[in-house]
Structures are given as structure tokens and as C-alpha cells.
Amino acid sequence: MPTADIPTRAQLVQRATELAPLLKKFAAQHEADRRLADETVEALAEAGFFKLRVPKRYGGYEADTRTLVDVAAELGRADGAAAWVTSVYWIPTWMTCLFPDAVQDEVFATPDVRIVGTLSPSAMAAPADGGVVVNGKWSFVSGAHHAQWQEIVAVLVGPDGPPQPIMALVPLSDLQIVDDWHTSGLRGTGSVSTVAQDLFIPQERVLPLGAVLTGQYASELNRDVPIYRTPLLPVASASSVGTVVGLARAAKDAFLERVNERGITYTGYTKQSEAPLTHLQFAEATLKGDQAEFHAHRLASLVDAKGESGADWTLEERARARADMGAVCRLAKEAVDILAGASGGSSIYSDVAIQRITRDIQAVNLHALMNPDTNSELYGRILLGQEPNTLYI
């Protein structure tokens, strides 16, 4: 695709802004259905958001991570579930670009292909003639209802050598979807479980996870493309934080919609916006949202700069990438919690947006890879000269 046909970051963010009315319209339905509406997915596809991490040779945009942050933030401002699913598609799509080029030809033959995935090795694999056979289950598979492929992780146990985790690509049609997504937050993401039963996966669609985590990729054509020569965990971290920034913005929007229409009960304030307490609360929440955005952009800038230069990543930079992601989550949640606490008893009604935003940001902060405490601890270990206690760095 000619470069002139690829939209700029500003154009993509504008498209996200223009989708806001539709996303807000369907937000309640997303929660009730526990998945995105077909109309939402079609609109996201039409806007080109599923092409952001697809190679240009397949009609993709090869967008940098700063673009992902800014687009997801604008989507998340309208609906956290839609932004989350979109960003989740970006990560396995990027991971697909690490596989052999012939495998990419197969996957990207589907226009606006949507790929879901997980990094949890919750299945077992056994060697087979020409590939592996996998059995197991993966949970929290966001966006599975509308996807065509899944990136899976399993532990390969063979007759020779120790067990090792592998990453593989499988068509969603080869997996069973278990509709078990009954949750308090991010309900609209459709993060169901999938199951493999004696599933054969050809060898060309299998990579050692350890090689992927250390930057040993199988693609020849993507080898020198900046966005594909960055380690997996920093890329995944930068791809995830935009939704969180958007939820903090959404809380501000929701608060402002009501602050001039309601007073503070049992006080003399007939308008909440006139109370000094409200001034302090809104300022503090705004500053925390600004800080979250700083960490999101610092993370994206690091990922993009290292990809452009091709320079090796230090252990401290890898740990800081996860620490920045955790900081975004913590600060955004603190901002949302302040505004939710200032929204009064009437805010618990289901048609008031702040309660959905609060539940969504809480769910994000509980995510194993996004949890602020876990990521801060890892960063602190590295800063104090200790070895990481995880492969996911």
C-alpha cells in the first residue's frame, strides 16, 4: 500500500473521536450482552483500527505505539470495553508478525482479520508428526466472539529435553468457546474461555515462547521493520495503556455532565460545582489523569525510539516499561475513584456512566500483567541490582 494511503496519527485519533456517539450508544448493550455489538466491531473495522499493527504489504498501517495509545485513549473515553478489545487485537496481531512469512500470508489473507491471544501457558502440548497436539483451556480471551484466529501458549512436553512453553496460531473455528464471562468489570469485552481438544497444529505455526520473549523471531520480511524489532513485553505494555488513559478521561466527562445539575445533599450547596471541596477533588483527579498520560506517552516513546534505532534493550528499560504500565493503571484508577466518590448516591444507578467506568478501571488494575504493585516490585528489584523473578520482562 502506498504511504500516501496510510492515515496519520491525527487522522486516526479523529476517526476514534467520530465513533464516540456510536460507542456510547452501545455501551449499555455491550455490558448486558457481555460482548461487543456487531455494529461496534463493524465500525471499528471500517475506521481501520484493526489494521494498525498489520504489515503494509497486507494493506496495514504499521502504526507506532504512540498512535495506539492515542487512539485507544479516545476510544476508551467513549467505552472502555470497545477500547480494550481493540487494543487486545493489536497485541496478537503484532505477535503474528513474528511468525514465518508464509504463516502471515495465511492469517492476513482475511481482510480486517482479528486475532486474540493470551500469554498464560494453561495448556499442554505433545510432539506429533509435522507439528504438535494441544489440549487445554485459556481464559480471559477478550474479543473471541468476533475473532478468526487465536495465539495460544502451551507447555510442550516431549521425550527429549525439559518441558518448554510454546506459542502457536490456531483458527478460532478449531477451538470451543466457553461462554463463562460473568464479571463485575469490563463486562462488554466478551473475554470468554477457549478450549482445545486433541488439536493438531502444524509446526510452521509454532514458535518457542522463550525465543519470542528474547527477540528471536521467524519472520524475514519484518525483521528490519521498526515496530516489529522490539521485545514482546514492552510492546504489549505500550499497546495496553491507552484504554486506561481513556477511562480516566471518561470519568472526567461523566463528572462534568452532572456537576452543574446536582447539589450536595444536606449542605447549602445547590450546585456541586460551587463547592471548594469539589474544586480540590476535580483538580486532584485531573492531575492524576495527566500523570497517567505522561507515563503512557513515556512508555510509548521508549518503545518507538528503541524500535527505530534497533538498539538493544537494557534490563532496566524492560522493567521500566512494565513499571510505566502499572503507573498508568494506578494513577488512572485513583483519578476515577476520586470522581466516583464525589458523584453522590445517585451515581449508583446503572444509567450513570461513572459506575461502569469505576468497575472497568478496577478490572484493569486486577489484570496480572497490568497490576501496579506487581510491576513496581519488578522495577524495584532491577533498580536494586537483583535478577528478575519472571520471564515476562
Strand content: 5-15%
Alpha-carbon Rg, integer: 21 Å
| Gross morphology | globular
The CATH superfamily of the largest domain bears the name: Butyryl-CoA Dehydrogenase, subunit A, domain 3
- The second-level CATH architecture of the largest domain is Up-down Bundle
The total of beta strands comes to 8
CATH top level of the largest domain is Mainly Alpha
**Oligomeric nature of the chains:** single chain
Low-confidence runs of at least 5 consecutive residues: none
SSE string, helix = H, strand = E? HHHHHEEEEEEEEHHHHHH
Q: Biggest β-sheet, characterized? A: 8 strands, mixed
Terminal Cα separation, in Å? 34 Å
Class based on secondary structure composition and strand pairing: alpha+beta
Query: In the CATH scheme, what's the topology name of the largest domain?
Result: Butyryl-CoA Dehydrogenase, subunit A, domain 3
Helix content: 40-55%
Total helical segments: 11
Q: Mean pLDDT score, rounded?
A: 95
Our count of domains comes out at 3
Furnish the topology, listing elements before pairings.
Elements: H1 9-33, H2 38-46, H3 65-78, H4 80-96, H5 101-107, E1 115-117, E2 123-128, E3 131-141, E4 149-156, E5 164-171, E6 176-178, E7 192-202, E8 206-208, H6 209-213, H7 232-259, H8 276-309, H9 315-341, H10 353-366, H11 372-383
Parallel strand pairs: 1-4, 2-4
Antiparallel strand pairs: 2-3, 3-7, 4-5, 5-8, 6-7
